[in-house]
Specification:
3 domains, 524 residues, five-stranded mixed sheet, 17 strands, alpha+beta, Alpha-Beta Plaits
Amino acid sequence: MTEFAIVIAQQSVHLYRLSGASAEPVAAAGVDVDPVAWIAAHMPARGNCSLVSDIMDEAYIRNVLPPIWLAGTRQQLLQRRLLQQMRDNPYRAAVLVPSGSWRPPTRVSLIGMGQSERIAQWLAALTAHHIRVKGLWPLSALIALEVRQKLPRRPRTDPLPGQPPMAPEPASLRPTLALVATPAGLRQVLVRGKTPLFSRLALSVGEGSLSAAFVLAEARRTVQYLISQEWLGSADQPVATQMWLPFDDEQALAEVGSDPALDVQFIEGVADAYARLLPRLKSASAQLQFLPDESRTQWRAAQIAAGAKYGGMAVLAVAVLWSADLLWLSWGKRNLAQEQLARAAVINQQASQEVLRAKGDLSQAGLAVASVQAWQQTLAAQPDQFAGLQHLAGALKGAPGVEAQKISWALPRLQVQAAGVPPAPAQPFGCPKVVDAAAAAAPAVEPAKPALALLSFTAALPLALTQRQALQLQDGLLAGLNTGGWSAFLLKSTVTLDPVQVQTGTLGEVGARTLDLCLEKVAP
């Protein structure tokens, strides 16, 4: 969007188009021009515009504050004094003078801008044309930025004979008088750092009125006034001076630069001072902006909307990149899963072909195929697990009141044997058996038969039974289980019958009556 700047001079108005580091003049008019018609003729609607004043009616009041460390308290005091001393001026500002040390600033310049009715007319015309006003700055604020860029470092004073030279004073702390020739006249600004402390406009009368004699006379008059008002001290003389003048005559430039009251740092010829200074609006201080917030509502709303727009675009870009990254990751994972499924299908097909080739001939199969065939043969030789559960259910019917709480099953470990490999020793498999020492020492009459399946369970007996009745019920359950080729082994009795173990109990309480049994089916 195109940026514009309107310079309200003492006797004229100038419109410039801002583009980067340059300002292009668009139109100029006299003081009696109609603002509404002139703006409609030269500016597009819904644009951005900055106002700059170059008028005589500017008031600068020097003020001294107590040393206040808190910035908020100091700002409140500044606003109170500004309101008291410039109550009738709607466009006012307070500028702190840099202290040059770690101490808080105490000197302040109270600035008031005149011709408020004229400025209000131009502000109303811009608002009626739907142009967003960025702010109102005095030309001295832009000159201060231009001066600060060109400040050198110079010795404070000439050293006395026989003494070493003094350390150079930082240029940002030395007051500098800037003389700028504008279409309105000779603008004279006292600058310290980037802060304009004082400004004065000497009107030019007719063509060629800005002669060397006129510039020197006005500069001396301004320096005398600044010394009388204590803006300058004796240590600041001769006053550091920078000049932007429209002179083309080298003799006139030399005459201005040879004045002993001015420490002229440089003189530069400039044809259009406004075009030279207006690009400085990009870095103009908000402290020197004179318009109240209600006069900048449209521009502030546009800035917020632009920030929200760019923020939304950034969020959208991040979301798109994140979605693309997730899509790339999901695409890679999908391809990896497809490759794994393809490899698994190939392996499954190869295993099926090997099983089909080795069916009925274990010597032609590998270790995995032999394990599958051995498992099938073992299941064929095993008793039906459902038959074992039926046998257990029948025994429980003969023992009323007994409840099976947990039933677990077990099968013997498969003995995998490959072709040409001797069989591995069989692992012991069966119910735990309690054997006394004499029976263990006696030779076995015949080898023990291998167990085919195990069923282990925990049974709960009724609590209302006496110990004798519980033992009788337990014996009846064991007798019912030891039938049909099944063998039952008592792992835990409801009553401990060990004569060595101490019998314990609690009066008035009946403990849980459970017994653990193991049911075993052996080979015929």
